[in-house]
Design a protein that fits this description.
Blueprint (H helix, E strand, L loop, with lengths): L1 H5 L3 E8 L3 E5 L1 H4 L1 E3 L6 H13 L7 H15 L1 E8 L14 E9 L6 E2 L2 H11 L6 E4 L2 H14 L5 H11 L2 E3 L5 H4 L6 E8 L2 H11 L12 H8 L3 H10 L8
Antiparallel strand pairs: 1-7, 1-9, 2-3, 2-4, 4-5, 5-6, 7-8
């Protein structure tokens, strides 16, 4: 990885891992999926929380939900997210809020799926006010070498505060997430995701950050705990209640 970056052939991209479950949403027609299945409690909770995210649009919330669904279906797209919620089981540390973080955006098309680059994911999410993760880009030998040195020093006992501070200091570009891991899931980290991407990624990211400023994303309490507490004894009824309280979003 260091040699690829040093030769100008690639950029190293690193993102923070929020600890949750994979949730995928593709609109009414495409459906919602979680735990390698659909129509289950995980998908119902995912749709419910995704619907609550759109409340940040205020009076435009319902209109934006409809636009979002129609856009996904028209473009044959699927959005993959990390679903973080304590009602479905803790992953090492109970989150303070229930939320989702977008991890991938895919154009399904008629053949091989096309995955968005991270700059395109950032642009897509900021347009729709969907939560994004903290991302760092390392495009020089010095910065990528410093990343691996920091990783070696922090990988056993590093917390969200120490890891984020260290990576902010050595990265060529740091893109803060619209969801703050420290505030929402506290200090325990599941890990980092590092991968080689195009050497043009840094330039593309700078243009995206200029054209798409970070929107205000407020995580609203969707009342998930109250719904679970009142309907826990009957899972089918619980799913029904979740979907009825989602708004425009519906399970297919």
């Amino acid at each position: 990885m260091i040699e690829l970056v040093a030769k100008g052939l690639a950029t190293l991209e690193v993102s923070l891992k929020h600890s949750g479950s994979l949730f995928m949403y593709a609109g009414h027609e495409g459906g919602a999926y979680a735990k390698n299945s659909y129509g289950n409690l995980f998908t119902a909770v995912g749709v419910f929380i995704l619907g609550s995210i759109f409340r940040a649009w205020g009076s435009e919330a319902s209109e934006k939900q409809v636009e979002f669904i129609q856009f996904l279906e028209r473009e044959h797209m699927c959005v993959s997210m990390e679903l973080v919620t304590a009602v479905l089981g803790d992953h090492g540390q109970r989150p303070r809020e229930d939320y989702v973080v977008v991890t991938a955006v895919t154009e399904l098309g008629n053949g091989k799926p096309k995955f968005y680059s991270t700059p395109k994911i950032i642009a897509f999410c900021r347009k729709w006010r969907l939560p994004t993760n903290h991302v760092w880009l390392f495009s020089t030998r010095n910065s990528v070498s410093s990343f691996f040195a920091a990783f070696d020093a922090l990988r056993e006992e590093g917390t969200a505060t120490s890891v984020c501070r260290a990576l902010d200091e050595v990265a060529d570009i740091s893109v803060p997430g619209s969801i703050d891991h420290i505030k929402m899931q506290r200090e325990i980290l599941e890990g980092l995701v590092a991968r080689i991407v195009s050497h043009e990624s840094a330039n593309e990211m700078e243009l995206v950050l200029k054209d798409y400023p970070l929107p205000l994303i407020k995580i609203w309490d969707p009342g998930l705990w109250e719904i679970f507490a009142a309907n826990r004894s009957d899972e089918k009824h619980l799913i029904k209640v979740l979907l009825e309280n989602t708004g425009t979003f519906l399970m297919s």
